[in-house]
């Protein structure tokens, strides 16, 4: 029964010929020509995705990235103690890393958008979970490589292990001069590289790949193992520290939200501002309400309740002033309405003024012809002139043409009619 169970997990089933796998691994190590161009393009795509906070674009860049090649090559070379292959793998990985940093730094330096997006921030604080993702992602990738039927895990491994985004984030840190971003992202990139390499080494040893023909030194084999154990410690210890920080932060946020929900929200208070700071010492909860005001006794009671929620060493800060915020908001709304009404009145007055200063010459001409058939054409417009250096005068003037000419009596009658028709007392009439 036990043998049957073990058979289910036996990796020798469906295994590719070892020599063929090694040839395939070696062919993917080199970064020259097309591989280098593909890498540079993938870096630009990933940088754009991080810049605009697009997860889909970042995933696309990870799928086309050829960075896994030299890392897997390093793992295989360590597993088979092929040190020339290891040197070649490390050399190509360094080339790929430097090119990626140059391209991403140049992109972010030229990009007009320098805002730190959430996708960028996610790559600046690695922790133990990133170690687990890199290791088990590497295991999946190497197992797939050693199969006759490769299946479809490789794209998933490329996405899960996420080698491109940390490199782009490191370039972003260099471009804006933020070295904490740079070192955090490089640390995450190093974790991914090292633990993919270690996972590869583990599978190669488990599948008993033969050692290199030029290798027969037990001392060197033990030294390689010691180096690997040392790298594991160097990578894991800081990541455990960061993971603990993340755990403490999440725990504080959960407790703080429980406190706010119980003490404020469930009592019907409208919360308009909330800020939780788990990194300060002491930690702090900062809130503000729409209308509720707390006196000193109520504040002291709330602060004394904090330990009941596991919030020791935490300050409660309630932002409030002597003004009635709700009343202030309503006053501002009323002021805005008043300003809008004033604008409406001003617009109406301007429209009236424009209407008063425009004359419908065709309409007036048709009416004039009924009274004065001799009139052939008219033109009425306002004339602006200065009576002296200080005062501006606006006078409506009508120029008309009649055949034959109007008599003085007709001119007087037309003047009177137009003054009444246009409601103007200073209208001047000029014959063409």
TrEMBL record:
UniProt xrefs under InterPro entries: DUF389
Transmembrane regions listed in the UniProt entry: 36-52, 58-81, 93-113, 128-145, 157-175, 181-207, 227-247
UniProt keyword annotations, A-Z: Membrane, Transmembrane, Transmembrane helix
Identification of the protein by name: TIGR00341 family protein
Organism: Flavobacterium solisilvae
Top-level taxonomy: Bacteria, Pseudomonadati, Bacteroidota, Flavobacteriia, Flavobacteriales
